[in-house]
Amino acid sequence: MAASELPQSIDDTLALLNDAGYVADRSLATILFLSLKMGRPLFLEGEAGVGKTEIAKVLSQQLGRPLIRLQCYEGLDVSSAVYEWNYAAQMLEIRMAEASGSADKSSLAKSVFDERFLIKRPLLQALEGEAGKAPILLIDELDRADEAFEAFLLEVLSDFQVTIPELGTISASETPIVLITTNRTREIHDALKRRCLYHWVDYPDATRELQIIANKVPGANERLSQEIVAFVQQLRSDGDLFKNPGVAETIDWATALTELDKLALDPQTISDTLGVLLKYQDDIQAVQGSRANALLKEVKAELEMG
User: Fold this and answer.
1) Of the candidates 200, 222, 245, which is a domain's last residue?
2) Same structural domain for residues 134 and 233?
3) Domain count of the fold of the chain
4) pTM of the full predicted structure?
5) pLDDT tens string for the chain (306 positions)?
C-alpha cells in the first residue's frame, strides 16, 4: 500500500498497524477502517498507557501524513488550540507605519490583521492540510480540558471550519483524519461522542503483550519476557492497585531489565526496579516484599507447567 493511500479493507488496516509494530486485535482494526472509510472522528477511550496515542503515530508513519497533536489540559482555550494574533509584530508594524508617515487608519487596520501576523495553532493547522494528504489530527487526553473547550470542539468537528472575525471563515479543503483520546478521568458529553466512532482500548492479553515486548524490546530474553508479562498480568487481574501498569510500563520494565542483563526475574531485582513498573509509592509498598515473592513463585510455577 502506497504512502497516503488509505487501507481498503479491515485486513489491510490490520496489516498497516502490524507492519509498524503495533500489535492490534481485529476489533480495533475494524473500527479504525470504518473511521477512515466514513470520514468520522475516532474516539479512543481507555486507561493511560494502553497505546491510544500510538495509533495516531502509526497512522502518520504508515500513511505518510503529518501528525498534528493538540495536547489537552485544564484551561485550554481558542488562542492555544486554534489561533492567536502576534500582537508584538502587529505593534511593530503600527509603529513603523507611524514613523514613515503612512499611518492611514483603514489601510493600517487591514494590514495588521493580515495572515502573516496570524499564529496558527493545531486545529487551524489541521484544517489547512493539503488536498489528498490531509493530516492526522490527534486531540490527546480530551478529558483534561474544560467542558467549555469541549463544547467549542463540538462545533469544529461538526463543520470542520473556524471563523476568524478579521479574516473570515476557514474551511478544510479535505477533512483531516481525527483521533480523540481520553483516559476517562471525567465523562465526555454524549453530543461529542455521537459525532465519532468509539473504541475502548483495553489492556492486551498475555499473548499480545508478549508479542508487543518482542517488537519493542527485541533484545529481551524470551524467558524474562514471559515472566514479566505473567507478573504484570497478575498485578492487573488482582485489581487492588491505585494505577495498574500500562503497556508502556511493561515495555519500560522489559527494557530496564534487559539493560541490567537479567535473564529471569528474582525477588531482589523486582524490589529494586518496581519504580519502573509502578508510579505510586502506595502501590510499590503494596507489592514489595512478600507479595512480590508470592507472585513470582506463582508465575514461575505456571510457566513451568506449560
Assistant:
1) 200
2) no
3) 3
4) 0.88
5) 555 589 999 999 999 999 999 999 999 999 999 999 999 999 999 999 899 999 999 999 999 999 999 999 999 998 899 999 999 998 888 888 777 766 666 677 677 888 889 999 999 999 987 767 889 999 999 999 999 999 889 888 888 988 898 888 988 888 999 999 999 999 999 999 999 999 999 999 999 999 999 999 999 999 999 999 999 999 999 888 999 999 999 999 999 999 999 999 999 999 999 999 999 999 999 999 899 999 999 999 989 886
